[in-house]
Amino acid sequence: MTSYHDAAAQGLSPKQLEEVLRQIGSERYHNRHPFHRLMTEGALSKGQLQAWALNRYCYQAIIPRKDAVILARSEDPAFRAEWRKRIEDHDGQDGWGGGIARWIQLATGLGLDAEVVKSERLALPATRFAAGAYLSFCTTRTLLEAVASSLTELFSPVIIGERVPAMLQRYDYITEETLAYFKPRLGQAPRDAEFALAYVLKQADTPEKQQAAIDALVFKCDVLWAMLDALMHAYGDGGHIPPGAFRPEDM
Length: 251
What we know:
The chain is mainly α. It has helices spanning 14-28, 34-40, 46-73, 77-91, 99-109, 114-119, 125-140, 143-149, 156-170, 182-203, 207-235. It has one domain: Up-down Bundle (Heme Oxygenase, Chain A). It is built from eleven helices and no strands. α9 runs antiparallel to α10 (182-203). The longest helix has 29 residues, at 207-235.
């Protein structure tokens, strides 16, 4: 894998910066993680998939909150008008009619209790820390860095395109209804990523800002990777489930 520490030291054109950002995704996005590969190969037990859905909820639930933080930090009405679509996508019109509700549908389709999932009390400590770190990053770093960290959405269609067909084919208890969360994301993620990328390429107009944007995307990829690392450690071979965390029946 490439080191991105000084990728923008000499300054990059917008095209070159985009190339670096896309390279980060090709090398560091979590579709390359062994846990994802096991999922798409049909090698996970139902309990392991339950653990994934339960823990991933912590991240899903943080998304509209970090987007609200980003929204509040912008002084540009046009930016805010575009960015608020993200919150509507996840919360819906009534708080439970969007992507978060569809993730709960995924979890309950795998046999989990909705209230237990929403409470997050059985999630791995590392998952909660990773989700919290992402929210903190978007709260404390520059607006440019917060927006750049969202650019993992550039690569979201790739992982969805791998995950959904494989899960439908290899797990007979999973249906299209179970995976209803992912279909809208095939349209939402590219729309959001296109806007965020244009913003980053325009605003990152110095080597320092370009490096900050690069580092922000690396950080976000690390957050997603760390969550799968935690799942692999807890629920993989030999499982090391921490006290108080979810324990599948089939482990």
